[in-house]
Amino acid sequence: SSKTAPIVGTMELTPVEKLPVSKSTTSSTAELEPKQHTDWNAVVIASLVTFLSAVETTVVGMSEWPYMHTIDRDATSQFFGLVSSVSKFGHAVFAVVFAFWAYRTHSVKVPLIVGRGIAFFSCCVYLCVEMLPSDRRYLMLFCYFLFGVAASSSTVLRAYIVAVSSTEDRAKAYSAIAVANMISIVIGPLCQLAFSNMPYPGHEIIEGVLKFHIYSAPIWIASATNFISVAIIWFGLRDVYTATKRDSDGAMFTLEGIKARINVVLSLNLAWALIVVCWIERIVSNISTVTLSSIMSPLVMISFGWDGQLTVKMLALCMGLVGILALGVAASFFFCKKLLSPRVAFLVALAISVVMYLLTYPFQMTSHKMQPYNETSGAGCNPNEYSWCDTAYATWPVVFLPIICAVMGVGVPLAGISLDTVYSKVLGNIDQSMMQGAMIVSEDIVYILGPVYAA
């Protein structure tokens, strides 16, 4: 995410490049962080584990709402928003739990393996959800909560990257993790597309218990990735014990330790106005992302009258394109970063989001009436659920979807990379772990509350 200087009204803010950096801060940081060589093999293994964890999420993402709405017609878009919020809440809370566990045990392997075990269990429960005669949406909510908990175990790899990389190579090491996540955005939808022509209810593996169809096939793939992940973690990942760091941070997770770290941060000569601006900009820029990801599936089914199978196919194609565009943005930012400053890049990203709202507005020349409700497929606009079905218009899919792909594939990654870059420069040469944690908290606020608001 990037940080920017000139974004608040009349407030005069110092450009990032001119911020003073304390020599004492720089020297103390150098003393705390002894010179080390980067273990690129460990970075690659961590990136591979990140990819397998992320692809488990992206391979299921396209079919979440269509499947829920197909097997439980009492599931509303508002309930789907609640499901997304609960999943993110589980991720936020257990990210702290796994971080504490990894710190206390001096190991990332065990928390990661436990996380994969939780993911496999949630996949098994998800595959059996149709065994319930009614109210299946509540079991799906429980599954997505577990998915969020399982995904949070991978956050310990951020600290692992710090332990196995030198200060000079840290940006490149983190970029490997970012690329792994972006590749998963491409691979996940491709896996979903491979089964997009498979009808529902599909084939029964165990009569009345297990089925194989367009919605369950991705879960079978997700289940398999857990076994691969555990094997890689167990045999390929090595734990790193940073004794020097632990001697100085021994009470890090105690109340006194947290207070001490807060006091250290507050005593630093930081540009707090810019830091707060960066937090606000992260929240604002993420609102569009959370809104789109929360309502996209229900919106296209309601607006365009697409059934679950067509919705999965079209959104999988769109997300594959988004992943390719995001990889292009990341590569261009890495190789052409001197051509465009992070502040300007972030402003461009925000402008792209603003243009999206203008271009996707349902003007008469580019829109049509809402599709009538189909009780068989559950597609179309149900007037018993939405009072605006007879009066609202929807932008043509040929206009709407390409614009959304451009925003998600270009605007979102550009905003993320540029704001991260600005924020790290604003913080300067200090131990950034606590301040980066504050930025993550601002993200979690949007990810937890955003889906409920959007739905």
From TrEMBL:
Pfam families: MFS_1. It is a multi-pass membrane protein. CDD domains: MFS_MFSD8. The keyword rRNA-binding does not apply. The chain crosses the membrane at residues 42-67, 79-103, 109-129, 141-161, 173-195, 215-237, 262-280, 312-335, 344-363, 393-415. InterPro entries: MFS, MFS_Domain-Containing_Protein, MFS_trans_sf. This is Membrane transporter. GO terms for cellular component: lysosomal membrane. Keywords: Membrane, Transmembrane, Transmembrane helix. One of its GO terms (molecular function) is transmembrane transporter activity. It is found in: Membrane. PANTHER family: INNER MEMBRANE TRANSPORT PROTEIN YAJR, MFS DOMAIN-CONTAINING PROTEIN.
